[in-house]
Amino acid sequence: MKYDVIIIGSGLAGLTAGLLLTKKGYRVLILEKKPFVGGRTASWDEDGMKVESGFHRVIGYYKHFPRVLKKAGINMNKIVMWEEVMDFRSARKGDVTTFGMAPVHGPLKLLKGMFGNTDTISYKDRMSLFPFFINGMKDYLKKPDQLDQVSVKEYAERHHVTNNAFHLVLVPLTAGIFFLPPERFSAYVFFGLLAPSLPRFYKMRMGGFLGGMSELFSDPIARVIEKQGGTILRDHKVTRMIYENGRVKGVVAEGQEFYADETVLATEIGAAKKLITDSSVEHACFNNLLQLPDVPAVTIQFELDRPATPYDRTTFGAGTSLASFTEQSRTTFKHVPGRMSCILAPAERFINMESEDIYQIAIKDAKKLGLEIEGHVVDYRVVKHPKEFYSLEPGHDWMRPDQDTPIKGLTLAGDYTKTSNFATMESAVESGEIAAKIVEDEMTKSAL
Ligand SMILES: Cc1cc2nc3c(=O)[nH]c(=O)nc-3n(C[C@H](O)[C@H](O)[C@H](O)COP(=O)(O)OP(=O)(O)OC[C@H]3O[C@@H](n4cnc5c(N)ncnc54)[C@H](O)[C@@H]3O)c2cc1C
């Protein structure tokens, strides 16, 4: 059977494009190499333990992600638990500092975080962050290209952030958000993550999911796609795109050929580069993409016989490999007495390490942060993402490709493609929306 559209990959980018195109009545085929949909927003059962690709937070200013959920009949507010504060635990000083982040939903906590004084982060340390953040936002809006040439570390030095504020706030923030130390984290990307909160500051807060992401949204979106007439084939790895006479005409998966008028390549960056190369789709438009480096991510998830912390809250672990983590037994995984999900940094250190060695390091670092989990671990899993993120280092943002390509029949989607966001659920959905629009325009043009 010939389809109107083939979508390679069922992450949020592919699911979004599939949802929007089936809604318009197109015959869509989604091919996914894994046994489940959702990509980096999947959760699954692994030998008796519920795991997820990594703990995720929705940011209150997101617009594209809630919009696609709504189109699938899901109310985002019903699937997230909002947080107004975040914790910074320090290995150097051994205590916890809480910062508010919600000007409307938690103004007092925000003010206390900004102007408070503790043994760990003094008033002077906090004040030193103001010129850094204010100038960063200004430069993001006025000189984005120049800002992308500078790392967060260089920018912090330029604006005299104190050593303490740098190590206790900026190091854990950059590692916890995108697994990179401040010397490798583009200042443009860092402030770009905060900038959308300016016009939508009243929405600023973070949301943790009230269940596994597959059951809350990836599977429900897939069901709507199927209900609208789309086909999803899991365990179908695309090995090549069929590229003939300057046009992508379909794909090969599991030794079978599938044909369509339009193909949306919606895999993560590493797989996208491989498929473009393996299919010999040669064009100068892919030069930047092929040179845009990818970086890994690694997480460790513990099932415990009691909660690791007194509350489920996003926490950054300054001075340890536990870049960011959260207890989840009261929110995401309520079926167990304790559940801690951690993102490890630097990911390059862990990507080729045995799980047992990672476990030992994580347990030791948890102890340094005052978390007594040793002796309470019922089970654990390490989840690795080898080539799934584009690098957010200085000088790379301009290399992200547009969704539209000069190759007939081929559109790109995925969090690495050019959007107003960076490597998040929001950018994945935005890219899927753009790709769906391009495909629809092409289909309309060729129908005329
Ligand atoms: C640990 C971790 C924490 C994160 N935290 C947050 C957060 O707090 N907030 C936030 O907004 N975002 C977060 N993200 C990022 C977010 O998950 C991603 O940006 C987003 O899900 C990417 O979606 P995507 O569709 O672009 O790619 P993916 O989800 O990677 O989807 C690509 C799909 O393509 C499939 N595929 C690959 N190759 C082939 C092939 N050859 N044939 C068929 N299928 C193929 C893959 O299996 C996958 O399903 C986090 C990600 C991770 C890993």
Automatic annotation (TrEMBL):
Keyword Transmembrane helix: yes
Name of a matching Pfam family: Amino_oxidase
Domain of life of the native organism: Bacteria
Cofactor(s) for this UniProt protein: FAD
Amine oxidase domain residues: 12-437
Membrane spanning residue stretches: 6-22
SUPFAM superfamilies cross-referenced by the UniProt entry: FAD/NAD(P)-binding domain
Keyword field: Membrane, Oxidoreductase, Transmembrane, Transmembrane helix
Database matches in InterPro entries: Amino_oxidase (IPR002937), FAD/NAD-bd_sf (IPR036188), Flavin_amine_oxidase (IPR001613), Zeta_carotene_desat/Oxidored (IPR050464)
Name by which UniProt lists this protein: FAD-dependent oxidoreductase
Organism in which the protein naturally occurs: Piscibacillus salipiscarius
Taxonomic path: Bacteria, Bacillati, Bacillota, Bacilli, Bacillales
